[in-house]
């Protein structure tokens, strides 16, 4: 491969007919299968209209587009496009330049991700470039002239700083600006721009240049790098448009976040090579995004995704990186999660800002987010292990009703995670919901034929599926415990509390309710809560057989390890279970036997 990416150049007249083109253009479009004489002959159908609009615009110079062009009869290839008005042989024309994205990526890989070489390949003229690599604290400055390059400096940045000061390359009145530049670049900021007078290119303290350092943060094979150009200050503005090409290779075009490949590669480096302790891998998924897309259109959906990306960047700042993993799913690598308080605060801020941002904007569709998180090295020492546990947390967050975060805890999740991996049954929330509702439909059919067996079977299934610690059935006039599954609870021999007015209020006219008890410092607690806490219950769902005034039986579904809200489909299943029991009881009370 040559040291330069092929840039296809074509001159078009006012009717978009080809006046002339370079060799690279004709080689690239040689396999189209027909003569290439007009814009339509080599442009993809969906890109033709936006390309014409771009070519006719007055401010196209120094701007870029991503459009598709015909590579052969059946293939379209995405290219960077730029254009400017020109005169060709005395005739008004527009010059269109194209760079194939795939070729750029292949070039990077072939050059071992040498960011200097990438910039050189993109035809930067006679300028100097710099790169700073976080992993080895090295700075490299290369000067290009007449297609030749000369490495001026390549060493530890602190040694470079000392050398420049000792050699008097930095005037005394410029030392502050120079030292600020050094400190800032070492933080690997998203963008950097600094200017000062120096003789670092001339090697003569008597010959000073007012140099402008313009750079962007770049991820090269998972390593944080700052890459930029060193130009005379009066030429600096040109770089602001040219840096767009570099960004597009590694960013998602809609959200401007890192794309899946880049954020994944970086995450692997953080956890498997740098082994940054207290770094968190976070997977975030938007709740109810599909209904917004379906109801309000893809343009509205794109705006949601774009704004979500902005919010995540605002929250994370310089404490990590975020990328779009795909669809409405985002992957975050965040540093400094030293304790549970910091982690909770970080995750909660994401929940709160996403929820507030879209509140009331899509009628009754409430956009929120669900988050799963795992921390290195507490939850794992490889990217794959951490990703699986973060994904498990996301699944649990969706499973428990959305709009919440779950960070992996060995004391709560290890055994369930192990079983899930072994059974390969970590399914998506929507699939689980459909699966459980189908199971309830089968139960409603079975209960009419063999009620006792159907009830025992469904209770066993619900205990395992909802990861319940206990299910207890109370029956008779004194509501004694007649049947129990799972952990044996203390002070749980009867349910006399169900005869209270407070219990009737909890039912609110239904035959079931759910309740969770979060940790509280309040001195006053309801009688029902006190009853549950005496039995060690932290979350409960309860359904009755009969009426609130005349309860024939009470079935309780209980969590004792942690207080957690009930997922929507769990509530639906319990409601269906209660309704099925009551329907059968109303028809034939003798059929219900516990």
UniProtKB/TrEMBL annotation:
Source superkingdom: Bacteria
GGDEF domain residues: 277-410
Stored InterPro entries: DGC-Regulatory_Protein (IPR052163), GGDEF_dom (IPR000160), Nucleotide_cyclase (IPR029787), Rev_trsase/Diguanyl_cyclase (IPR043128)
Database matches in SUPFAM superfamilies: Nucleotide cyclase
Pfam family, one: GGDEF
The protein, known as: Diguanylate cyclase (GGDEF) domain-containing protein
Organism in which the protein naturally occurs: Treponema berlinense
